[in-house]
Amino acid sequence: MRIRKRRSTTSPINLPPLDAGWLWLESESNLMHGSILAVFRRPPGTSPEFVYDLVERMRSAVVATKPFDLRLRRKGFGRVWPQWEQVDHVDTNYHVRHSALPWPGTERELGRLVSHIHSVPLDKAHPLWTFDVIEGLSDDRFAVLGKMHHALADGVAGIRLFQHWLSDDPTDFGVAPMWVKGMPPRSFRPAEVPRALMDTTTYRRTLAGWARGLTQPLRAVADGLPALRLAATGTAAHPWGAPRTVLNTPITGHRRVATQSYSLSTFRALADAIDGTINDVVLTVCAGGLRRYLSEIDALPSRALTTNIPVSTRARDSTRQVGNSISWAMVPLPTHLSDPCARTEVVRASTRKAKERLDRIRGAAINTYTLAVTTPILLEQVCKLGGRTRPYFNVPISNVPGPRTPMFLDGAELVDIHASTVIYHGQALNIVCLSYGDKLEFSFTACSTALPQVQRLAVHCGEELALLESLYADQPAAAVEA
Predict the structure, then answer these.
(1) How many degrees, rounded to 5, is the angle at CA 437 between CA 433 and CA 441?
(2) What is 306-374 written as a DSSP string?
(3) DSSP state, 274?
(4) Rounded average pLDDT over 361-373
(5) What sign does the dihedral 361-363-365-371 (CA atoms) show?
(6) What is the rounded CA–CA span in Å between residue 346 and residue 343?
(7) Most buried residue among 53, 181, 187, 335 by CB atoms closer than 10 A?
(8) Of 95, 149, 150, 425, catalytic
(9) Is 118 a catalytic residue?
(10) In which pathway does it act (predicted)?
(11) d(Cα 59, Cα 54) in Å, to the nearest integer?
(12) Which domains does the chain have, with CATH numbers?
């Protein structure tokens, strides 16, 4: 394919503060991209050239939609504040890569290659995304690894984008890649390009709320102050109340990605048994797995860890085309308790408390809260204090909804899908759970220098799930309110 010169054709798009923050955080060690690893099974009766043909179709598809045609602007005001510029032509030969494992490729070999790819920063001279198509897996399988910078899309938006590429019809062939199809029509409608000097929407909303408060003091107290108080005290755990651990050290640019797949029905049954939620079971499993892992390396603290749970504030009919719509809730992770039932009770009570407190923050006040809890993390990284001071929290754990029904790519069935996200100085581990059909797919992203053999954590989480099953197997499910 002939590479034509890329040039901007529209007005620059100024990044909101939350999106810009991901660029400010980035360094050789702090890689601010996320990834989606999807494993497919080749359609029955197709030739071994199926994957090669798929790659060629991906490369021949013209990039025509946001955010895939956006590149960082490096001139004018873009030198002062991060800006996107739209480019006419994107070199798909650069963005779509093709590699193969020595046949028959194993999960371990795939994990090593994915970890290597995840360790490579995205080139800011290009739009900040790539796709690696990996063949050579056993059982007629191949993998697609998509990488995208967090400034372009948060985890929920990334999953929606990827899902929009797939089809629920196994006979649907020749589906256009997501950079041709664009955003899902209901969730992401084209937005007008901002023309203001700086698109600081979140700050403007916050300042506007405070300005209204000068003439409406009661409303200011009702909206702004509770949000700031919640940010200062935490939803269910105090900021900077977390113990110092090996999870919170300075990191390098080397990554290790480990994955595990479990039955979602198992998590649902356990949630019913404990009168909790699937997310309660996820946090309990992670607490037990982390307790085992930290004990194994003689690094278990005597106090509970603190987890930070990303909470999506993106509405189902959101009109935002790019960027981030997330907030956070901090809850204790009772790794200090040896009794798994006691850990379950602590998690369940803590998440309920966090939800109740976060639900009180509505409207523009959620922006105040989000800025208040995000700014300390950003300042810590900018001042190069990450991993050198008491941690704000110990480990983030996300639970992201994925496709509910079997999905296909040109007739190839989606077998597994995992999402990996960012780590940075002071946060050497990030855990993401993604649901797909009757599966709950765990992904553990870690700095391989700070946390060697993080795949042992994945194994320990499986052991903890089996333990919970044995403890609650004979317990009747709690009644569910209509």
Answers:
(1) 25
(2) EEEEEEE---TT----SB--EEEEEEEE-TT-S-HHHHHHHHHHHHHHHHHHHHT--TTHHHHHHHHHH
(3) T
(4) 69
(5) positive
(6) 5
(7) 335
(8) 150
(9) no
(10) Lipid metabolism; Glycerolipid metabolism; triacylglycerol biosynthesis
(11) 9
(12) 13-181 (3.30.559.10), 202-403+420-472 (3.30.559.30)
Record the tokens describing residue 466, joined without a space: 């089996």
Hunting for tokens 């990488």 — which residue is that? Answer: 147
- For residues 176 and 162, give the distance between their C-alpha atoms in angstroms, rounded to a whole number: 12
Compute the half-sphere exposure of residue 174: CA atoms within 13 Å on the CB side of its CA: 0
Q: Return the closest-CA partner of residue 259 out of 441, 453, 436.
A: 441
For residue range 410-469, list pLDDT tens digits in order: 999 999 999 999 999 999 999 999 999 999 999 999 999 999 899 999 999 999 999 999
pLDDT in tens, 257-292: 999 999 999 999 999 999 999 999 999 999 999 999
Q: What is the pTM of this model?
A: 0.83
In total, the chain counts a number of residues equal to 482
Angle at CA 67, nearest 5°, toward 65 and 68?
70
How confident is the model over 285-339, as pLDDT tens digits? Answer: 999 999 999 999 999 999 999 999 877 554 554 444 455 556 678 899 999 999 9
- Please report, for residues 146, 147, 183, 227, the alpha-carbon distance to residue 95 in angstroms, rounded to integers and kept in the order given: 10, 10, 19, 42
**Structure-token match 């960082």, residue found:** 72
Comparing CA positions, the residue from 2, 122, 37, 53 lying closest to residue 410 is: 53
* Cβ–Cβ < 8 Å for 42, 50: yes
Name the token pair of 225: 């102050």
Provide the residue type at 471 as one letter: L
C-beta of residue 15 within 8 angstroms of C-beta of residue 81: yes
